[in-house]
Write a structure and sequence with these properties.
single chain; 209 residues; alpha+beta; 7 helices; 42% helix
C-alpha cells in the first residue's frame, strides 16, 4: 500500500495500462519484468487450475532473478470464533460513516471464513448463504444505514450472484501448486495488521531462477 500511495503521487506518463486476460500468453512481455506484483489478484481466478496457469505465465514474463509478489488471504480463526466476531459486528453501534463501511466490510469478509475447503477452495454456495443471512441481519440492526450495507454486500459478486473470491488458501494448502510451478519459493509473510483478523492476509514471494 505504501508503494501504491507513493506511485499515485508521481507522473503516470510512462505507464502503459492494459486491460485483458491475465491467463493469455502475451508473448511480447517474455522476459520483460523484474517484478510482477498483485494485491490479491489470484483470489479471483478459478482454483487450482488457473492459478497454475498464472504462475506459468509469470515465469514467462519475468527476467531471470525477477520476482512475483502477491497478497493472498486465508482464514486464521476457527468457526466458533468466526461466529462470535460476526455477532459482535452486528452488536457494535455505528461510529463515523467511514468506520461503519469498514465494519460492514469486515462482516462481508467473515462470511467467507467458515466456507473454505481443505484444499483452500471457496464453497461459493455457502458463502452466498452466509452473505444473505448476515446482510438481512445487518439491515435489521442498522436500518438507517441500508445503503452502505447493500453496497458492501453487492461488491465482488460474479454474474451468477456468488462471491468472486474463488479460493482463500494458506501457504500449506498452496504447496502442491507451488511444488509444480516453475518459479522458486522465496518466502511467506503473515500480515499481523490484517482485517478482519490478524494474519488473514499473507504475502507470497516467488523468484525466477
Amino acid at each position: 500500500l505504501t508503494a501504491m500511495e507513493t506511485f499515485a503521487q508521481e507522473s503516470w506518463n510512462g505507464v502503459e495500462s492494459l486491460s485483458g486476460d491475465w491467463l493469455a500468453e502475451h508473448r511480447r512481455f517474455t522476459g520483460c519484468f523484474d517484478l510482477i506484483w498483485s494485491d490479491g489478484g489470484p483470489l479471483f481466478l478459478p482454483y487450482p487450475d488457473c492459478w497454475s496457469t498464472l504462475l506459468e505465465r509469470a515465469d514467462m514474463w519475468l527476467k531471470t532473478g525477477g520476482l512475483l509478489e502477491t497478497k493472498i488471504q486465508s482464514p486464521p480463526i476457527d468457526a466458533e470464533e468466526v461466529e462470535r466476531r460476526r455477532r459482535a459486528l452486528l452488536e457494535r453501534q455505528p461510529g463515523s460513516e467511514e468506520d461503519f463501511i469498514l465494519q460492514m466490510s469486515d462482516l462481508w469478509q467473515l462470511c467467507h471464513f467458515d466456507a473454505i475447503g481443505s484444499d483452500g477452495a471457496t464453497d461459493r454456495e455457502r458463502v452466498g448463504h452466509n452473505h444473505s443471512r448476515y446482510r438481512t441481519l445487518a439491515l435489521e440492526a442498522f436500518p438507517k444505514d441500508a445503503a452502505i450495507i447493500e453496497d458492501t454486500f453487492a461488491g465482488f459478486v460474479d454474474h451468477d450472484g456468488l462471491t468472486s473470491l474463488q479460493a482463500l488458501p494458506s501457504c500449506a494448502q498452496l504447496k502442491p501448486i507451488l511444488d509444480d510451478c516453475p518459479l522458486s519459493f522465496v518466502s511467506e509473510t503473515l500480515l499481523a495488521d490484517s482485517r478482519p483478523a490478524a494474519n488473514y492476509c499473507w504475502h507470497l514471494r516467488l523468484r525466477k531462477d
